[in-house]
Structure formats: C-alpha cells, structure tokens
Design brief:
The structure holds two protein chains of two kinds. By secondary structure, chain A is of the alpha/beta class. Chain A has helices at about 25-35, 65, 75-90, 115-125, 140, 145-155, 170-180, 200-210, 255-270, 285-300, 310-315, 320-335, and strands spanning about 10-20, 25, 40, 55, 105-110, 160-165, 190-195, 220-230, 240-250, 275-280, 305, 340-350, 355-360. Chain A starts with 9 loop residues before the first strand and ends with a strand. Classes of the chains: A alpha/beta, B mainly alpha. Chain B: It comes from Streptomyces exfoliatus (Streptomyces hydrogenans).
Chain lengths: ~350, ~80
C-alpha cells in the first residue's frame, strides 16, 4: 500500500481509561504521568509469597473491594482489572449510543492468569480425585476468561477476542479491533490489555529474566480504548488510529527489524519522522528494548518528545503497550503542539514480536 | 435412600449461599436459584461440583434439573450414594 486509502473510514479513539500503579481511572493516570511519579512499593509478604523486593502495584486494588461482592467470589485479579477498567471507560461514554450486539471486546494478555492456571492444576494434582477441583476457578484458569467476564459484566454482545502477545498485546489488540471495524463485524470495539501481579508471575519472571539485562521491577494494570469507525468528514475525536505494523524478529537483529517496522508504519501513512510529535518505547530490558530506545531518541532529536512509561510504572508485560498508548493520549490532551501531529508507540517482546502503532491527534 | 441430617442441610445451605453470594437469611427452601437468585448455568455446575467435593458424594448431571432450590438439592443429595 502506498499512502493512506482515502475511501476508508477514519478510526477514532473515542475514549480510554486505565487502572495503573498511578491509581484507578484516567485522571489518576494522567496526573501520575504528568508528575513523573515513581510507583514502586515494598511488597506485602502476607499477600505475596515472593522474595523480598518491590513492585509497581495498583494501589489498594482488591477485586471485591473495587467491584463489590456480587459476581466476584472467584474472580481473579486480571479479570478484576479488566472489568473495572472497562467500567471506567464506559462511565465516560454515552452508553445509550452503544448497541450491545455490535460492541466488540478485544483483550490482550500474556497468557491469562498464570496464578489461576497453576492453582487449578495444583488442585487437580493434590485433590483426592483429579476432577475434585474448585469449579469456580475454571473460567479464570483459561486465558479468555477475563474477556468473557468483561462482556458478561458489561453486557457486550459483539465479537469477543483474547490475544496473547506479551508486551505487544496492547498494540496488536488495536490492530485486531481495527480489522473488526473495517470488515463491519463491529461498530465500536473496546480494546486494550491487562496484566496482573501475582506470586506465580513474580517467580516466573525471576527465573526467566536475562541476568545480563538486569531484573526490572514488575508492574501491572490495564488500559482500555474505545475504537469506532467514523466517516472521513465526520467531526474529529481527540485522536484516531492511523496504522499498526507488526513484524517478527527471528534472527536477533532487533535494531534492523525495529527500524524497518517504524519506517513502514510511517511510510504507509505518508508521514515523515518530523511529523511525529511523541514517541513512546516499551522500555523493555534487553536488545529489543534497546533498539526501540535508539529509534525513539532519533525521533526525539528530529523534533518529537519522548514519553517513557516503564520507568514509572514498571515492566507491565501485556499491559505495557496499552499503558504507552494511554500515555501519549494523555500527554496530547494537555499539549497543543500535538494537534495535527502523530504519536508513535513501539513495542518488542522476547517471543520475537516487533510492533508499532501510529496515532494522529486532532 | 439415605436421609440427610440437619448438619448436612446446614452445610449444603452454606455451600449454596457461598456460591450464589447470598446471606443465609436471603434464601428459603423453595426460593429458586435461577429465577430469584440470579444463578446462571455456571453457578449451578459450581454447586454440583462443590457438593461432590465437600460431601464426598457423586451426583449425576441429569439430577441438576431437579436442583432448582434448596429443597431440590436436599432431595438429590439424600438419594445419592454416600
């Protein structure tokens, strides 16, 4: 494709919200980001059976305290984060304008809740019979449990998808939402990504971290976006999705693939590096993250601003790209220089994914 | 057919109330799980499995059709092999 297709509808970002280590809701996220507030706290070892250390947790987030005691008996943390964030998102939108049957839900994840999966497996291995497991755990021990519960809780009846893509999940969820809209499968898609902190995830991260890259503090949370198709001449929303590009790095040459990915997403939009107002790299430790950082610094030198997120809210894994998207949207709301210009979010994941999303601010 | 004790009934009621997220005074022997207490099919399966797990009984899925309220659950459990 050479240049944007003018016949296509514009894909507007008509709302967003986040539940993050800065707190619950969009304004807490915006405020924490503006202040550049660090969020690492000491872990409560009554709650988390992990080695002494710190992490970036959503403050005071207990599922039943946030969502109430109805329908939450067995709900795990990642589902609570997603259900709560979508609730915040919908509270800011005109619910009556949404048709349940054409409202889709796309949730990015790493692999669901490893904690719930392990709890169920442990129960089966340690119970009197293999099938004597706690049945309430089952919906949450599969990775599409959270997206399903979001739809049930908020009465969304459109397409419901779960996308496992690690750190890139937020960007790929936007891409999936874009395809649902362009093919007429949905009128509005609520999309984003969520990751929970858990004892199981902390141990997994500890044993899989690259010692040479340093061990990042874990973060958690969820950011959700409402994406809707609008005619090209309709009044503009604050931002629209221009394009998403995803590639695979299979040979370890992250620098080349990240560069090619960014060049292509810009070229597909007929954009120049100087059109970029803000760039947000994943901040991941390791060669993928380093390659993103190098491109971000070049774009910043060409007149953009850099919006780092991970140094404040930790390694969010699946939530990370979603937080980056929320961060550029949030910054643009208070910076007039963003008007008419672009934001670029880049992401890499150890599994080999390299992805970039391009937004235009109006 | 084995009768069930008052203790069994109390334990069953506790399990059902826990799963349906109800206080014990919100439910009666004849109040309906689905129509009156907002249960869905998942909750009904949870009740069946939890009874099997905690009472060490085996219940047939076909009997779920009769487990529409506490009285129905007491009946099904009393008929089970224990």
């Amino acid at each position: 494709m050479t240049g944007p297709d003018k016949r296509r509808p514009r894909l507007d970002l008509v709302g967003w919200s986040a539940t993050s280590p800065f707190g619950i809701g969009r304004s807490a996220f915006a405020e924490g980001l503006r202040e550049g507030r660090a969020t690492a706290t000491a872990l409560d070892h009554e709650q988390w059976q992990v080695p002494a250390g710190r992490a970036c947790l959503v403050p005071d987030f207990e599922v039943r305290a946030v969502l109430g005691k109805k329908g939450t008996r067995m709900m795990n943390r990642v589902t609570g984060l997603a259900v709560g964030t979508v609730g915040e998102l919908l509270a800011d939108m005109d619910r009556s304008a949404l048709t349940p049957e054409t409202t889709g839900m796309v949730l990015g994840t790493t692999g669901g809740s490893v904690q719930s999966t392990l709890d169920l497996t442990r129960g089966s291995l340690s119970g009197e019979r293999p099938f004597h497991v706690e049945p309430g755990l089952i919906p949450y021990s599969v990775m599409n449990g959270a997206a399903g519960q979001v739809a049930i809780w908020h009465e969304l009846k459109g397409p419901n998808a779960t996308l496992a893509a690690g750190r890139s999940a937020g960007v790929l969820a936007l891409s999936y939402a874009r395809r649902l809209l362009l093919t007429g499968r949905a009128g509005v898609v609520l999309c984003g990504a969520a990751e929970e902190y858990s004892t199981a995830r902390a141990w997994l991260a500890r044993h899989t971290a690259d010692p040479a890259a340093g061990e990042p503090l874990l973060g958690e949370g969820c950011a959700m976006f409402a994406l809707a198709a609008a005619p090209a001449d309709a009044p503009a929303a604050p931002a629209s999705l221009v394009g998403v590009k995803a590639m695979t790095c299979s040979d370890g040459n992250w620098a080349a693939v990240v560069r090619r990915c960014v060049e292509q997403v810009l070229r597909d939009a007929d954009a120049k590096p100087t059109d970029v107002w803000a760039v947000s790299p994943s901040g991941a430790a390791g060669p993928g993250g380093d390659a993103e950082q190098a491109v971000a610094e070049e774009l910043a030198a060409a007149g953009g601003i850099e919006v780092p997120v991970a140094p404040l809210v930790g390694e969010g894994h699946a939530a990370s790209a979603a937080f980056q998207l929320a961060a550029v949207l949030s910054r643009a709301e208070t910076d007039e220089r963003s008007t008419g210009r672009l934001s670029l979010v880049t992401t890499t994941d150890e599994a080999g994914t390299v992805a970039a999303a391009l937004l235009r601010h109006h | 057919m084995a009768a069930i004790t008052t203790d069994d009934r109390q334990q069953i009621k506790k399990i059902v109330c826990d799963i349906l997220e109800l206080e014990e005074d919100e439910i009666t022997e004849t109040s309906l799980f689905v129509e009156e207490h907002d249960a869905d099919s998942m909750r009904l399966i949870e009740i069946l499995s939890s009874l099997e797990l905690n009472l060490k009984v085996t219940l047939e899925q076909a009997d779920m059709a009769r487990m529409v309220n506490l009285a129905g659950v007491y009946e099904v459990v009393s008929e089970s092999n224990r």
